[in-house]
């Protein structure tokens, strides 16, 4: 079985009872991942913690990679849900405040159960790219681009889709690094302010650079 298939759920629950079972399994997986770490986690442990048979777990998740993949997917869905509420098209009257609120919302998402977030982010490369996560990120980029296109004017031509791509990746990388390497920063005003300054410094019109000294000709 390929790594990609192992990271895919076997089936999605449709009935309410099945959905409830999956929720219990995922809650158990989150608990075991935090307490035992990825390497120490087994599907048997998760099933025991959830109070379900190993067969019931395997009906939905063929491996612990699939459990991690679903938890990663849900993390991105929470990010999309929060940003979608913030990024309804509207005129921006205070760019700094808007950016600060968006950054704070993003940091707050990763501030919920940071121990679990750290395990998920550390293991994300192991499970490889997930189509649903890529779709969520594309949706976030679309929302950000829609707001910026209505509100920002640049002194020089800029590829707005590339601008948004860079902003999203820079923020994601910085927040993920903080969760994994400097978890004490999550939830602090300093992190929000520095990330906001990063975005604002990139978004605001660039000042024209004075020409540098001419190099002597050889």
UniProtKB/TrEMBL annotation:
Residues 42-61 bind DNA. PROSITE patterns: HTH_TETR_1, HTH_TETR_2. SUPFAM superfamilies: Homeodomain-like (SSF46689). The keyword DNA damage does not apply. Keywords: DNA-binding, Transcription, Transcription regulation. Residues 19-79 form the HTH tetR-type domain. It comes from the Bacteria. InterPro entries: DNA-bd_HTH_TetR-type_CS, Homeodomain-like_sf, HTH-type_TetR-like_transc_reg, HTH_TetR, TetR_C_15. GO terms for molecular function: DNA-binding transcription factor activity; transcription cis-regulatory region binding. PANTHER family: HTH-TYPE TRANSCRIPTIONAL REGULATOR BETI (PTHR30055:SF234), HTH-TYPE TRANSCRIPTIONAL REGULATOR RUTR (PTHR30055). This is HTH tetR-type domain-containing protein. It comes from Cystobacter ferrugineus.
